[in-house]
């Protein structure tokens, strides 16, 4: 089919999204799914955060969703969860988000997330039972040292003898945990014995405690024990992740996304103990984590991801995968790892990409339902490129560093396209992030 025929068909299928869109059509597509995965084509686009927040609010209010789980570290997100559930010591959303110190800080310390956190706290104030308040949780595994310290702190309060044993076990790695890549390098190349067995033992001890609670009549695992068990799981999987970094990119990627899937399952089961059904969870993460990897060239090379694992573990009607795309605009991103947040111009999408096809419809922003419909996208296969901008954006190497081939009809259940998008607003702005619109030549200066 010629591109023009594809574009004409896309125009007919598109559901335009106007200002203050209520997402009725999207909620109809989602149906009774209890796991809704909301993606993003960049880690720094304001509209993606705003739309995901609006969709999440409706899922919570109208469909009884119990939690938001995000591509963030467990301890940092848990601090936010305590705040929105009217616990902890923080007095404001900004304070609750202050745990997010690791690069890229702007992913969660931004104005759009502050607004969502404030909404969650107000919503929870009207929930009668504290056990039914909506939480905010992290799925990621980068918090190796922080999670180990959280396990010890929990045991210090509840079992000092077990706390001392945990210190001894974690002592194997704790002195290198500030720079876990150094640990991974040292163990991979034989300069140090790995600490896997010690971290596994600590996780097993906490898991046995959880099982004992479950074996009691009407037993449930106390929240604080579950949180400690999850921190032990993070530590165990992070140790594996940092060792795998020096084996292959696919291996480390798979460890990380498998951890996200494991955390999502554990979270649903734990929250579901207080309900008559497994918890309903909305997930926020990048398209590259949430779009079914089997439909991409990375999947053919051996990668798996969270979206694929969710589809494999649950019935089709139980999960829904929504991707986001953009053609051009501005984005908050860095030029290198640990670099400052910059306001960057998003290069217009390439010819031969799915973003360019969606741009050619001439519709400013729209929903494109895919699953259960005879969408024109289903006949395209993987002959079109798809763009992924993460925390780093390098326009000068964009084809090699940010594009890959994908079959979007198999990757997602629906798409939302924002033709001209705007940069996420960080709470802390460097000299390279300016409030005004970036000039047309930014960042090249040509």
Tag the structure with descriptive keywords.
446 residues; alpha/beta; nine-stranded mixed β-sheet; two-stranded antiparallel sheet; 18 helices; 11 strands; globular
Which secondary structure elements does this structure contain, and how are they paired or packed?
Layout: H1 3-13, E1 15-16, H2 24-30, E2 35-38, H3 46-63, E3 67-73, H4 74-84, H5 93-96, H6 111-125, E4 135-140, H7 144-158, H8 160-174, H9 180-188, H10 196-215, H11 223-244, H12 249-272, E5 281-284, H13 287-290, H14 297-300, H15 306-313, E6 319-333, E7 342-346, H16 354-359, E8 365-369, E9 384-387, H17 398-402, E10 403-406, H18 408-411, E11 414-421
Parallel strand pairs: 2-5, 2-6, 3-4, 3-5, 6-11
Antiparallel strand pairs: 1-8, 6-7, 8-11, 9-10
Element order: H for helix, E for strand:
HEHEHEHHHEHHHHHHEHHHEEHEEHEHE
- Describe the largest sheet: 9 strands, mixed
User: Helix count, per DSSP?
Assistant: 18
Total strand count, please? 11
Oligomer: single chain
Principal-axes geometry comes out as: globular
Average pLDDT value? 93
**Structural class, judged by helices and strands?**
alpha/beta
Uncertain ranges:
436-446
Give the fraction of residues assigned to helices.
40-55%
Cα-based radius of gyration, to the nearest Å: 22 Å
- Percent of residues in beta strands: 5-15%
How widely separated are the two ends? 38 Å
